[in-house]
Amino acid sequence: MFNWKYPNYRAELAVLRAGKIPTPPSFQMPEVDYLAGVDWTLANDKIPSIKWWLNHLRYTRPLLIASTPDDIIKATTIIKSWVEANSENPQSDYAWDGHAAAFRSEQIACLRTHLNEDWLNKSIVQHAEFLAAPDNYQGDWNHGLDQNMGLLSLGYAVKNHDWIELARERSIATMSKMVDWQGVSIEQAVGYQFYNFLRFQDAEAMFAECGAPLPRDIFTNLHNMTTFLAHATMPNGKWTLIGDTIFHDAERDRLAGTDAEFSLTQGALGVRPNNRFAVYQSGYVFGRSGWGDDRPYDEESHYSLRFGPGRVIHGHNDHTSLTYYTNRDDFIIEGGFHGYSGDAFRDHFRAPSAHNLVYTTDKARFLWQAKTVLKDYRIENNWQSYLLEDVPYPKTKRTRSVVFVQSPIELILVYDRVVGPKRRYEQAWHFDETVMLDIAGARIDATAPNTVASIHQLWPTDRMEVVKGRNDPLQGWSGYRRGDLRPIPTLLTARTGSDVSFLTAMIFQPSGNQENVAIVQRPVKKDGVSRQIGFKVGGSSLSVSLMEDETLVIE
Description:
By secondary structure, this protein is α+β, with helices and mostly antiparallel strands. Among the domains are: 9-178; 307-511, Beta-galactosidase, Chain A, domain 5. Helix content is 27%, strand content 29%. The chain is built from twelve helices and 25 strands. Strands 8, 9, 10, 11, 12, 13, 14, 15, 16 and 21 form a ten-stranded antiparallel sheet that branches. It has a five-stranded antiparallel sheet with strand order 3-4-5-6-7, with no helix packed on it. A four-stranded antiparallel sheet has the order 22-23-24-25, with no helix packed on it. Strand 22 and strand 23 (529-537) form a beta hairpin. The longest helix has 20 residues, at 190-209. The radius of gyration is 26 Å and the shape is elongated. It starts with 8 loop residues before the first helix and ends with a strand.
């Protein structure tokens, strides 16, 4: 029942056995001496992540897993200290946070399998009653599922079948809503796609061990969850930073034998995915040049594109945004995630301006709940086009049409249009910290360690600038992981009007082997074509048609 997988188990166990609670490096806090007595108020003036961490007690797991008599004594010291300080008139102002209580309940229940004392039994009842109360239940997402598993653990420890059955009933209702038929989590973040996959696995095993197995049909789409992760993984073996997602390697062994493992190990292990492209109705497009067959795996290109329902849970206001990786360079990136800090950066990273899209800098009510529609798409072997449309502000229609081309020229062409009240609009492109930008008229040279891109604003603009690490207003920043905030080069192009459009071309070439780039465009009013844009790079050429319906098509 409590056969937990725990990252850094051995390292943290050594610290715990020495009388200290190890703190996550991103918190930049000293280890906590629990033998001297834990000050449960120490996080009251900290960010929510630290408050939650202090109170969930999950850091006792290495001791509970090792479970030698001395380890159980040490785990008891920590858990009993929390109970004495927080059961009544809690010292910590996050003591009875619903998600912290969910994880803490698992540790308390595990301790109960080693220890039967009055203080512990009273705490089990208190935690179970808290989790069972409808007002404390956090619903159909990972917090609700974690609460159910905490209640299940308490019921298992003291053989309370009512608690087990309530946890089961809630889990059936919750899990059926957490993942759609394509295996996509409702939480709008690649990192939480993985987390929910893990918790579905845990729930399946834990309920079965308690003699209350969950219905098999709940897990029908479990294999599709790994396929999403496979497509959301870049050729460097890292996830695309969509939503509250960070780079990490913890517990990826639980993807062994799947298509997600194939992507994470760059083709070394796992099962090769069937397709290069994926369109998910929940609002994601992924594509790549290949799976390492015709060139080294990490030199393949990869893109993502966002649409779908309005922002919820761990999602960002990133609709119409795209990312791009090529030739071992993470090139165009998202604002990312630096933790649940509750500060201005947290707000910024969820805002449209932290993403690669068009937004207004004027005062206008952003309709964060608005849906972005994928109106049309076409997938060919060497190019793919997508047309998105939404209403991000009142009485305002925004369109993005984009074509990704892998051959004979590697390029992205983006047509953006906003029609509505007269405002100033910015188109933003965020680049990885390794990319250098240089503006030369209407062309921008972008240089990465292995790739050079020429970026062209093909239509007139009011202003173009590169921003990096700006504080007022925030722009040119990315969160690479918790506590890891970095300035990044960001290209901003502005236009003002009631019918504003941008036509942006990006041509990618390997460093040290650049050919001359020539672009010619001309208006065409024939067979539904509005404009043709011709590209020539060295001896290779192609023509893109902007159609009257605003789609982009390769001839």
